[in-house]
Amino acid sequence: MSATHEKGMQAFRSVMDAPIASFFASCVHCGLCAEACLFYTETGDPKYTPIYKLEPLKKFWRREYTLVGKLMGLVGIGATVRDKELAEWSELVYDSCTMCGRCSMVCPVGNDLTYMIRKMREGMAVAGHAPDGLRGATQRAIELGSPMGVKLETLQAQIRHQEKDTGLKVPLDAEGADYMVLLSSMETVNFPEYIGALARIFDKAGVSWTIASEAFEATNSGIQIGVSDLAKVLVQRIVDAAERLKVKYVISPECGHAYTALRWEGPNLIGKPYTFEVVHILELLEQLKRAGRLRTSGKDERKITFHDPCQIVRRGGVLQQPRELLGSVAADFREMPDGGVMNWCCGGGGGVSANDRAEELRLKAFNRKKRQVEATGAGTLVTACANCRIVLEEGLEHNEMNIEVVGLTELIAEYLTDDQPAAAGGEA
Amino acid sequence: MSSGKTLGEVLRDQGVSRRGFLKFCTAMASMMALPPGSVAAVAAALEKARRPSVIWLSFQECTGCTESLTRSHTPTLEGLILGQVSLDYHHTLQAASGTAAEHARMQAMKENHGKYLVVVDGSLPLGNPGYSTIAGISNVEMLKETVEGAAAVIAVGSCAAFGGIPMAQPNPTGAVSVSQIVKDRPVVNVPGCPPIPVVITGVLAHFLTFGGLPELDELGRPLAFYGDTIHDRCYRRPFYDQGLFAESFDDEGARKGWCLFKVGCKGPVTHNACATTKWNDGTSFPIESGHGCLGCSEPNFWDAGSFYKPLSAPTGTINQVAAGAALGGVAAGAAVAWHNRKIRGEARAKHEPVTLDDLEKSS
Questions:
Q1: Can you spell out the DSSP letters for A65-110?
Q2: What interface predicted TM-score (ipTM) does this complex get?
Q3: What predicted TM-score, i.e. pTM, was given to this entire model?
Q4: Measuring CA to CA, which of A92, A107, A166, B128 is 20 to 30 A from B88?
């Protein structure tokens, strides 16, 4: 078995559903999506216009799914999609699209371009045009359990460090817990203090939780590379573990695409409803805060701004929660221009950060974020996605900007208080 | 009378700055859909243009078109520049009356023979000539006499362009449009009831700049202004596309500003610039105020059924051929859809689970 052009075409054929057909049919060629894409705005190169990235799929649709295309095909005229073309488009589909969804928001006829890119990757991957970096990550995710090759031993070592730092127990495979926590490997390796922060918050709030030794990784490389069959394997792992541990909730970590994959695509991939509910960590923290179980005292005096991860705010609708949470701990919060649902992507989502081929372009696209951050005058950049966080850190480093990046959950954990509600008069 | 001064000189006398003048030229160039590079050419031409003599004839009309023109919000440049064409005869606006007025018309025709513009508002009665006369001259006679030495004729308003309300059934005066009488001179139709003032000035600016008339559609309307339908450019269009319609003028949809198609908006078949240039100095246009488009810049708009009936509702009874064709279309559509589903279904049935090995090409 290996990748072939025919497999790619077969995949194009099977993803061509009614939404895609109607999107292509209703495109009015207005070009508004160009201005919404940071790869276009930062390079000025028209090939990065989002709808153009879909050209081979569109051509395929015209050829095989429209009356005119079919008739032209019968008499042997009109273009078919060739392998060379797919090779050329690999950069456009994988390197210059983070599936951030900004273009879908501005399309005047309501075309969900992100949805189409996601589907187009299905064909690109099996035609052998996925970038090496992403292919390697997918392989590690399937074979080792994590796209960065993080194994259970690595996680256990990090857990021990965090237990020592916090003096709290991090439960592993605790059957019957309410919440099962997932981690992105980025957190396990680069930001293990997230685990410590959760332990402290859940201890104070009285939340029963656990990590599953068989499914601790949240990142779904199958979604990023565009292979539903592999994405399904990764979702199934989590579902099996959650069912075995009989948890009521699974918590998606501070990671964007993991949330999209598990919450919105997951049940469709495995073909049945979950026996548990998926919540993003920010949703849970806000719920706890509203219920009076998450109490903080004191405020951070630093100039703080917030980077909305695309998959969480735009594709996931978690807009108000981070602002509620920040409101309780930040004394000087500054909203970014275009912050919220129209926030600009960090440039590394959708598998782009795992794709070394895209690095130069990604750093160029980062100029948008650079300007956005600079406009706030903030010295501290808070976010809620480990992938955004590493991409932001790299970008800031590359531009020699003296700005620190902090995860929101960790920031909250810094201001936890022991005060009981009755005594906590000053804290709202 | 047309003076010897050029337009540029007159504007400077009026205290219009070079910057203001160029701004106007840019606006005009974009209104006429000219490339940005042409702004300089527009400016140069307008700067040198001699004030053309304009004779304005009003026939069977309501003076709404003149009212529209005078609402061009002086001192905007549209207003000023129109003040600077030499409007030698306009019986609503001119001070002279009676013999003196007719004398002015005769003199303008003589002095500018072959170069002056005739602007007409109102339709012409072919029935009894006595239905509408000026200084004892019937409308048809005056039009024929005046266009004799004209460079071009601009039919302003739906009455002059297409016959308008006077021609609506049962057309008691036998009204006809300007282009039905004038056959040997170029006629530009600027329909609308009334037309947008800037469209009138746009056509004049084009004439001054290029010494000719703008590109016209098959109904003689300048394409730059009448090339798109109201629907094409309507800010409520996204609601139409999503199927969100106001069902009456006081329901929730109307309050939320949804599409007015179902309460009779004629936007989809009406070619005009209302949705882009808007009215009253760009303030608003009927759809923005919550009322559907009446289609006033299209021929026979008055006789095209109720203003409040959706376009999709047939005005007469649908005949068998049409019904058959519709059924045929539905069947063909269903066949294509079925075939498409089959292609997709077969592809999905053939699908074998993708493994890691499928991601790399064996070379």
A1: HSHHHHHHHHTT-S----HHHHHHHHIIIIIS-----HHHHH-TT-
A2: 0.76
A3: 0.61
A4: B128
